[in-house]
From TrEMBL:
Its main location: cytoplasm. GO terms for molecular function: glyceraldehyde-3-phosphate dehydrogenase (NADP+) (non-phosphorylating) activity; lactaldehyde dehydrogenase (NAD+) activity. Its EC number is 1.2.1.9. This is NADP-dependent glyceraldehyde-3-phosphate dehydrogenase. It comes from Raphanus sativus.
Length: 503
């Protein structure tokens, strides 16, 4: 159970502690933040509302701990990460339980998130050992006008303090996807977890604590992003921000100083369906892509753009599958569970009502109880409807009928977002041309968009992000290239003639 067994020390009465200087602490603010269970709408957990002074202290310690961590041998850093991964996987049950209660993620998927996170940490440790253990050796005479008098040695060095801010929908996985690359690269790490998901993150951080990382190297500051966020992101001690979330990321980018940013933001992933597509395959992928975790995934299918000639058949197939989706509590592994908050549910309802007023065809009756919204397919959506462009982050999927592939590509490219997209066709040559034309970070051919496997590069264009994620790319983003140039008085050629005579 959450907060028991090895996790007892992270709880103070009914409020979870924050993590600083290798210890679990109660904030001097005397205030806490409530985490509301999305399904019951009752307070499930409480976390500390940390103060600015506590942030200052954490940053100070992160700066000093990083200096000795950067001198810790790479193999040793990797060893500690493997240890944390093992502890995390061994304790998947209480962490998954908090995911169920905080973000209403179905129980089975919650376990998968924790296990996947352990695997990500281990993969990152292995990859880090390889890519950080190698540098480059360059010779000057390859550039015109130079003789072989300069030897350039390059290596990757850490940035310093990395600030990690993950979103609610994958709080554990998207936290470790920042923590592991930062640590293997020799950085220290300050985590600000999402409020919904904070307790799962605190349990995960305790696994790192138990693995024996040095004091001050990892910290976890809790509190509402709207209250403590600006202070954290504009803190002078921060050398890199790795953020995943919505539009908040755009405002952080405008406020952050001259530091590397990794921004993984929203998306409006289009699914383009051609006339020759395998419609059963498309329908299964639309269900998986559009309705898994109730559509609360950055890479969910968020608009279907289907050729008019096959639209009726596809809509019928998807409708039949929607009818089979189970709706209810996450504890019972229902396909559709309550969305994260009342304000999210209200926002989704606003999009649905706008589509209704403007004449979309409802394939199911719209139904909502509290934060629980029944899956809904909206056919005959037109570009003047908000749902054609906005990210519902809920179990509501619009279908736009198109009369040409160009129309589909133009709709996809007119979006402010450019995260992923997918195209369904049996013609690989056409698929490649469409992929090239779509202005998105990734295009999936004959499958729904997806972030994983976690070592694949993952990036958004336009308002969907800055930089690229994926194990290797994250490690590279959290390092700088350092070069040392050895200048020789005379050109030197390995095994070249005249070597002895020049001595
Ligand atoms: P969000 O509202 O932007 O919140 C993300 C994180 O930012 C949370 O930890 C939040 O803390 C924090 N935050 C809020 N205000 C802040 C501020 N002023 N300064 C610093 N941090 C602040 O996003 P969300 O609702 O959690 O997640 C949904 C969004 O994430 C969707 O748009 C989705 O597409 C996107 N997403 C993108 C990816 C990707 O990889 N591209 C993956 C998953 C999700 P609090 O919880 O305390 O407010």
């Amino acid at each position: 159970m959450a907060g028991t067994g090895i996790f007892t020390e992270i709880l103070d009465g009914e409020v979870y502690k924050y993590y600083s200087d290798g210890e679990w602490k109660t904030s001097s603010s005397g205030k806490s933040v409530a985490i509301v269970n999305p399904a019951t709408r009752k307070t499930q957990y409480k976390v500390q509302a940390c103060t600015q002074e506590e942030v200052n202290k954490v940053m100070e310690m992160a700066k000093s701990a990083q200096k000795s961590w950067a001198k810790t041998p790479l193999w040793k850093r990797a060893e500690l990460l493997h240890k944390a991964a093992a502890i995390l996987k061994d304790n998947k049950a209480p962490i998954a339980e908090s995911l169920v209660k905080e973000i209403a993620k179905p129980a089975k998927d919650s376990v998968t998130e924790v296990v996947r996170s352990g695997d990500l940490i281990s993969y990152c440790a292995e990859e880090g050992v390889r890519i950080l253990g190698e540098g480059k050796f360059l010779l000057s005479d390859s550039f015109p006008g130079n003789e072989r008098t300069k030897y350039c040695l390059t290596s990757k060095i850490p940035l310093g303090v990395v600030l990690a801010i993950p979103p609610f929908n994958y709080p554990v996985n998207l936290a470790v996807s920042k923590i592991a690359p930062a640590l293997i690269a020799g950085n220290s790490l300050v985590l600000k977890p999402p409020t919904q998901g904070a307790v799962s993150c605190l349990h995960m951080v305790h696994c790192f604590h138990l693995a024996g990382f040095p004091k001050g190297l990892i910290s976890c500051i809790t509190g509402k992003g709207s209250e403590i966020g600006d202070f954290l992101t504009m803190h002078p001690a921060v050398n890199c921000i790795s953020f995943t979330g919505g539009d908040t990321g755009i405002s952080i980018s405008k406020k952050a100083g001259m530091i590397p940013l990794q921004m993984e933001l929203g998306g409006k992933d289009a699914c383009i369906v051609l006339e020759d597509a395998d419609l059963d395959l498309v329908a299964s992928n639309i269900i998986k892509g559009g309705f898994s975790y109730s559509g609360q995934r950055c890479t969910a299918v968020k608009v279907v753009l289907v050729m008019e000639s096959v639209a009726d058949e596809l809509v019928e197939k998807v409708k039949a599958k929607v009818a089979k989706l189970t709706v209810g509590p996450p504890e019972e592994n229902c396909d559709i569970t309550a969305v994260v908050s009342e304000s999210s549910a209200n926002f989704i309802e606003g999009l649905v009502m706008d589509a209704k007023e403007k004449g979309a065809t409802f394939c199911q009756e719209y139904k909502r109880e509290g934060n629980l919204i029944w899956p809904l397919l909206l056919d005959n959506v037109r570009p003047d409807m908000r749902i054609a462009w906005e990210e519902p982050f809920g179990p509501v999927l619009p279908v736009l009928r198109i009369s040409s592939v160009e129309e589909g590509i133009n709709h996809c490219n007119a979006s402010n977002f450019g995260l992923q997209g997918c195209v369904f066709t049996k013609d690989i040559n056409k698929a490649m041309l469409i992929s090239d034309a779509m202005e998105t970070g990734t295009v999936q051919i004959n499958s729904a968009p997806a972030r994983g496997p976690d070592h694949f590069p993952f990036q958004g264009l336009k308002d969907s992000g800055i930089g690229s994620q994926g194990v290797t790319n994250s490690i590279n983003l959290m390092t700088k290239v350092k070069t040392t140039v050895i200048n020789l008085p005379t050109p030197s050629y390995s095994m070249g003639a005249g070597f002895i005579s020049r001595l």
